[in-house]
Amino acid sequence: MMTERKFLEPSELVTRGVYEVFSRNLIWAVWSGDDWLGLRHKFEWRLDSSEFDVKAIRFIEMLPPHLGIWTYQQRANGGLSENKELLHYFLELKDREKETDFFV
Description:
This protein has 104 residues and is α+β, with helices and mostly antiparallel strands. Helices cover 26% and strands 31% of the residues. A five-stranded antiparallel sheet has the order 4-3-2-1-5. The radius of gyration is 14 Å and the shape is globular. The mean pLDDT is 80.
């Protein structure tokens, strides 16, 4: 018997909250209030954004205040690939997952 997976309701999402997500493209993502920006692995680790087909499984932590989640327009103009600090944050999150039971 399969257990139905539970997802957070959209009303439960917090802007700048970092979540473990169920998505075709993203592993972890931050909710911007309008869409998702997160870590993706396709040939290499990189940032990606998505408005569709992302469901939050659980809240992990708040994004540190010094990190920006650029607007959709900034990302569309190439800013996404330039947001190295956010990429490093997600890569460190990936490393923390290996070291602790924080993500259980």
